[in-house]
Hints:
- 18% of the residues lie in helices and 24% in strands.
- It is α+β, with helices and mostly antiparallel strands.
- It has one domain: Clavaminate synthase-like (Double-stranded beta-helix, 4-Layer Sandwich), CATH 3.60.130.10.
- Strand 2 (16-19), helix 1 (28-41) and strand 3 (43-46) form a beta-alpha-beta unit.
- It binds succinic acid.
Amino acid sequence: MKNDLDIRPLAPACGAEVFGLDLKAATAETMKRVQGALAEHQVLFFRGQDFTPEDQVAVTRKFGPILRVPFVKHMDEHPDIIAVLKEAEEKKIGTFGGTWHSDFSFLDEPPSLTLLYARELPAVGGDTLWASQYLAYEALSEGMRRLLDPLVAIQTGWPHGTRGPGYDTPGLSKSIKMVRNDPAADREIRHPVVRVHPWTGRKALFVNPVYTHRFEGMSEAESKPILEYLYAHAVKPEFTCRLRWDVGTLAVWDNRCLLHLAINDYDGSRRLLHRTTVAGERPAGIH
Ligand code: SIN
């Protein structure tokens, strides 16, 4: 493979496939062009990559310093990688990433980028969706943007609605070991509801139904109608793209301007992807 960038947008909102690039061999100069393409398309799909786990870690480092996200078990033999696995016999259970979210948005400094590499796939199904939060923000009325611009959202690592006595760990695939009962995950973190992207200066909505609990200064009941409106608005089909994976496809996406969702429609098949994350910064707001 050469290092020419052959970029083909997958949808007008976000997402582009990149052909003819071996990321293992990509030079610093090429990576600058990749970053430019990522800033434009928000999520890139590199087809036909041939990675060992060590290669994936080395390629991740080309995008920035690796972040080992807390509260979820990484692979014993590859501590920078999470195995996102659902076995064929694991039926009628949840899957990692099966609700729209931005990865670990409840951290002080959430990961900027996520890299997900497909190793084993169902014959059909197991696609992933992304939704541009730039477009979601820009499509709101001026009045709603004015309301949201100064607001702060309270986020925590306990998926919303899953706290409290009697709550049982939801049926996630057995490979995903979430660390529960850690007070550090339960800390309330303040992040702007409208985030300014450090590369582009564009504003993006930065709330999601997994980690956002309420607006600062408002109760959950008061916040709920607005948040529910935003969650439905944020993932309108015209803001999205959908990837049909091939083994060897690497997706690299920007959590600062996208939500994403793993579609859990492949009971009876095995799906295995390897996931790494790049360190990010404290989200910047408008004030
Ligand atoms: C994730 O949310 O990190 C996983 C997405 C997927 O499995 O498609």
